[in-house]
Amino acid sequence: CSLDTSGCNAVCGNGVVEGAEECDDPTTKGAAGNGCSELCTKEPAAGELVITEVMFDPTTTNDVGEYIEVYNASAGPLDLRGLRIARKGSTTQTHVITSATPLVLAAGAYAVLANSSDTTKNGGVTPTYTWNPTSAIQLANSSGPIEIRLEVASTPTLVVDAMSYPTSASY
Which of 31, 42, 109, 140 has the most CB atoms less than 10 A away? Predict the structure, then answer.
């Protein structure tokens, strides 16, 4: 805290927007579709966070170079924590974006969500967030069309964006 101590003791879920909280809904904290996450940050609505690119079959390495690029099409910043990446195909794999600190994407900005921070393996791209490919999702290279979904983790039916890709092409 600095000289302004109003945010030092912010309590998420008490019904009062304090400090860095963007919202605070005590009756339905984290409930899907109410617009306020369990972290007291604004949940992205459908169309506000858009999947713009998917690298599912890099030629340098298999799963290690995979990534998903997203774009914040909303008018304000979005905290990516609490979003779930779901890969649906012959099997479903999911990963919830977690971070001890806010993972904020400014309005009009792009972020790369990848399974490796090694830029030599993912085409020189510096990811905003990384997941562990052995314990999270792997983007399938075969077995028919694959759907990538960004969902509000507390309710998977609240889809922020989704896209499908054929598995016959490689990059």
Answer: 140
- What confidence tens digit (pLDDT) does each residue in 129-169 have? 988 766 667 777 765 555 667 676 666 667 888 888 766 55
Cα–Cα distance between 13 and 57 in angstroms, integer? 42
Q: What token pair was written down for 109? A: 């900005």
Calculate Rg over the CA atoms of the chain. Answer: 17
pLDDT, tens digit, for every residue of 49-105?
999 988 877 776 666 788 889 999 999 888 888 888 888 777 778 888 888 888 889
Q: Whole-angstrom Cα distance, residue 154 to residue 161?
A: 16
What pTM value is reported for the model?
0.78
Cα–chain center distance at 8: 27
